[in-house]
Amino acid sequence: MTVRAVGEAIPLAKPVLGETEERRVLEVLRSGRLSLGPLVGEFEQAFGRKVGAAHASAVSSGTAGLHLALRAVGVTEGDEVITTPLSFVASANVAVYERARPVFADIDPVTLNLDPQAAAAAVTDRTTALLPVHLFGYPADLTAFERIGIPIVEDACEALGAIDADGVRVGGRGHPAVFGFYANKQLTTGEGGMVTVADAAMKQRIDSERNQGRAPDMDWLDHDRLGFNYRLSDLACALGLAQLERLDDMLASRARVAEAYREMLPGVDGLELPCQDVGRIRRGWFVYVVQLPRGVDRDCTVRALSERGIPSKPYFPAVHLMSYYRERFGHRDGEFPVCEDVAARSIALPFFPAMTEAQVERVAEALRDVLERS
Ligand SMILES: *Cc1c(COP(=O)(O)O)cnc(C)c1O
């Protein structure tokens, strides 16, 4: 097969980092106060304002935030936490950290989020938390989850900037909501995360547990509970503050790139694009994931795209079918058919704020070409 000359490589993801980031990080470096300094509170307050949350706690990763949020709603050994099998593995792992059991329920075929009815059917007398994920930035149906009447922790790691069906910014609903700041997210601090909450006591507990269990008014070496080192450094918070200043622009750019994909990717039989916003919902664009037509070999597609200079990757694999989850919890193929069908057909395409229309066009043309040949 002849392959057309490839242009300059297009990355799968790419953060926007500029002078503001450099200046703010340099200021912290020069101050000599690299952690437990003033920028933590500053970043938390600015972030809380941005998503409409009363309180926010900066943590060392999205995973750390999910872990502390689950503890904050009372999850403990032997409990069950209901979550989606179509996610990054962290959303299930955090239950295992507490010796609780992640209980999966199938997803909605359109939004790809945890199906509230399936979640309700999975509730037992051991269920102590629901952990819906706003997958790929599309808000989960929180009204329906709230009706179940069990504490909720929102995995909002992919959903910064999203607005839910009630017009509420994700993170501002009052449940602990957890954001992630790894380099491919809407906002990055390299590694990092944030937990937003409505309840002041919950923020206090999270702040204490991220810092070895030290109460706010305690001396350095006294601790009244078990904690972790899940702190976020001032260097990272400086980066976060700079990123917050440009967040609206970055989100608008992501939405523009998604729109370009939607315009340039039609007409391939069976190819499914991300669902569109309905009502007051606004997706916070994170990745551009398409589902390949049934019967198309995904690995061959990824390889053929790569030969054309286009990176892509299977995204996400089903969590319950990962080796650890199969072995530890006895999961097997066929348990969650909607999730497994989507997981087997999905690929993430290059997607980042600075992506040009010409780059989107190159990806779209390559994908169309590859699919027409297969
Ligand atoms: C990114 C992400 C996380 C958190 O990841 P960290 O690398 O720990 O920051 C959690 N859940 C989902 C769904 C994610 O995409």
Provide key terms for this protein:
alpha/beta; Aspartate Aminotransferase, domain 2; 2 domains; 10% strand; globular; binds pyridoxal-5'-phosphate
Can you tell me about this structure?
The chain is α/β, with parallel strands linked by helices and 374 residues long. The chain folds into 2 domains: 221 residues, Aspartate Aminotransferase, domain 2 (3-Layer(aba) Sandwich), CATH 3.40.640.10; 127 residues, Aspartate Aminotransferase, domain 1. It is 38% helix and 10% strand. The strands form 3 sheets. A 4-stranded mixed sheet has the order 1-7-6-5. A 3-stranded parallel sheet has the order 3-2-4, covered by helices on one side. It has a 3-stranded antiparallel sheet with strand order 8-10-9. Helix 3 crosses helix 4 and helix 9 packs parallel to helix 13. The radius of gyration is 21 Å and the shape is globular. Pyridoxal-5'-phosphate binds next to helix 3 and helix 4.
Numbering strands along the chain, what is their spatial order in the largest sheet?
1-7-6-5
CATH third-level topology of the largest domain = Aspartate Aminotransferase, domain 2
Structure ligands: pyridoxal-5'-phosphate
Mean pLDDT: 95
Question: Given the C-alpha coordinates, what overall shape results?
Answer: globular
Number of strands: 10
CATH architectural name of the largest domain: 3-Layer(aba) Sandwich
The SSE string, one letter per element, is HHEHEHEHEHEEEHHHEHEHHEH
Number of helices: 13
Give the class-level CATH name of the largest domain: Alpha Beta
